[in-house]
Amino acid sequence: MTRSNTEFQLGGINHLALVCADMQRTIDFYSGVLGMPLIKTIDLPAGMGQHFFFDCGGGDCVAFFWFPGAPDGVPGVSAPAGRPEQGDLVSAVGSMNHVAFHVPEELFEEYRTRLAAKGVTVSPILNHDDSPFGVAREMYDGVFVRSFYFQDPDGILLEFACWTRGFTDADVSHTPKTAADRHATAHA
């Protein structure tokens, strides 16, 4: 099943802008380790910082700001404290929790092996399904996406993911939670 946007003709993500502590280290990781071409660099006016863009495929970019006075991130607030298998995946409202890059299903396991060989710590493979725990030990028809997680040098949580099946109307079946539900849970 495919659903189309009836309001705007969107072609995907133009770019997602994140903040780094060290632009050279960011280039070394995103271009050197992940192989993303650096396609545009900008020195911001009045010494405000830099803004660099990496091609992450499909016409989409991941971009980074470097600000000389940016405060350090706070694990568990501005981003998750670690990878999902390490514990808490929660981050603050308005934060960027993680970036998932789509990879071909037939190369998924090879890519995990290649990243580990480059010295990147990767999570176990997660076979996401609709079971009570949300993850299956083995692949089966109910798995809708496979993924694994890793972090960049600034602790930004990244994911390589591949869809394993199409979606139907049955895949949209949960009642959305509200801010009132969030506050009720916090006080319980």
Question: What features would you describe in this structure?
Answer:
InterPro entries: Glyas_Bleomycin-R_OHBP_Dase, Glyas_Fos-R_dOase_dom, GlyoxalaseI/FosfomycinResist, VOC_core. GO terms for molecular function: dioxygenase activity; lyase activity. Residues 12-163 form the VOC domain. Keywords: Dioxygenase, Lyase, Oxidoreductase. With 188 residues, the protein is an alpha+beta fold. It folds into two domains: 1-69, Roll (2,3-Dihydroxybiphenyl 1,2-Dioxygenase, domain 1), CATH 3.10.180; 84-172, 2,3-Dihydroxybiphenyl 1,2-Dioxygenase, domain 1 (Roll). It has helices spanning 23-33, 108-117, 179-187; strands at residues 15-20, 38-44, 49-57, 60-66, 99-102, 126-128, 135-136, 145-151, 157-163. The strands form two sheets. The chain has a five-stranded mixed β-sheet, covered by helices on one side. A four-stranded mixed β-sheet has the order 1-4-3-2, covered by helices on one side. It is globular and about 50 Å long. The N and C termini lie far apart (39 Å).
Task: Using brief descriptors, characterize the structure shown.
2,3-Dihydroxybiphenyl 1,2-Dioxygenase, domain 1, four-stranded mixed β-sheet, 2 domains, alpha+beta, dioxygenase activity, 188 residues, oxidoreductase, 9 strands, five-stranded mixed β-sheet, lyase activity
